[in-house]
Amino acid sequence: MAASRALPLLALALSLLAVASTVSGHNITQILSDTPDYSSFNSYLSQTKLDDEINSRTTITVLVLNNAAMSSLAGKHPLSVVKNALSLLVLLDYYDPLKLHQLSKGTTLTTTLYQTTGHAPGNLGFVNVTDLKGGKVGFGSAAPGSKLDSSYTKSVKQIPYNISVLEINAPIIAPGILTAPSPSSGGLSNITGLLEKAGCKTFAGLLVSSGVLKTYVSTVEKDLTVFAPSDEAFKAKGVPDLTKLTQAEVVSLLEYHALAEYKPKGSLKTNKDAISTLATNGAGKYDLTTSTSGDEVILHTGVGPSRLADTVVDETPVVIFTVDNVLLPTELFGKSPSPAPAPEPVSAPTPSPAKSPSPVEAPSPTAASPPAPPVDESSPEEAPSDSPTSSEESNAKNAAFHVKAPAALLFTALVAATSLLL
């Protein structure tokens, strides 16, 4: 009897274990590191930062190439071109072997990561997936007239409905994807032109007048990430008067808006550590931290936050973003002010004791109320309802609950099931 009662609890425990493993997410580089034959593909995912983008998403399928198949791309094209080609192999839907052979009408067009970059004209960021029967599945560009030049060979790894990794025998080549201009031959040399077109004329003008533009340009051929405040950001309330800064301080401020590394949005979304900027030196940290809210990335300077607004250009190894606030480093402008303390609570006056009733006249039932309960003066002072600290602690507790809940429920179910079995 006890054993039969324990079976449902054991089933629940196993279900929660599956949920906990799914919640923990995935790491594409770790998945592929178990197979040396994917070392080239895995290396290029890291170099192009596509691994961060893949790890930040769910319900995704990665079509991997072994080292032999990667030889047609590796070392033969600029890194930005290879990134586009590999982005076409990241499908924004979940396909396991079973789903590949159960396609509605036997064929479908699916969106890829390449379509989200803005580099894909028309429908070139879509891939045609077709069940060719006999156990064969073909892949090709969605461009009219394109052939199914790539075929499914085997399954590598599935975390159900989170990520599926499948091997194909050849890259999927969309028209023009291998002839895209590289950063050195494209328009990235004209950084100011790109910034002005994106609505960042004030920032572009400061780069030129301060001489910091030369620093940016010298970094383009290596790795460069730029956070460009919009013209509206410089007009916002609270932005310091930059004319009162020294020349050295202006240079530090502008260098603070760039990194000497390539960090596209996917990398910023998965970032956990402080990020050094071009202004970072021995005299001051001048670093940034990041957080996310849904799909948005927030930059934190210690003075105030700024949201990543738009991507002006993302061509490995250079990415330029617009941000909605000027980034103000604490080394120049100090830390953000602490919130004002909550006002002291006002205690209710203690009521005077009721007089004894006259022996001649009986007291009215409502004449003497019981004294008001004492006011807890310590509670409001320790945790005011509008205190930012209280809100942050509450959010932290909620976040901790969501992360730990599967493990806690799993433990409870296992203990209950074990006690019944015993």
Automatic annotation (TrEMBL):
It is a lipid-anchor; GPI-anchor. It comes from the Eukaryota. The keyword Cell wall biogenesis/degradation does not apply. Residues 337-398 are annotated as: Disordered. It is found in: Cell membrane. Keywords: Cell membrane, Glycoprotein, GPI-anchor, Lipoprotein, Membrane, Proteoglycan, Signal. The keyword Lipoprotein applies. Its main location: membrane. Residues 338-374 have a biased composition (Pro residues). Residues 1-25 form the signal peptide. Belongs to the fasciclin-like AGP family. This is Fasciclin-like arabinogalactan protein 10. It comes from Camelina sativa. The lineage of its organism: Eukaryota, Viridiplantae, Streptophyta, Embryophyta, Tracheophyta.
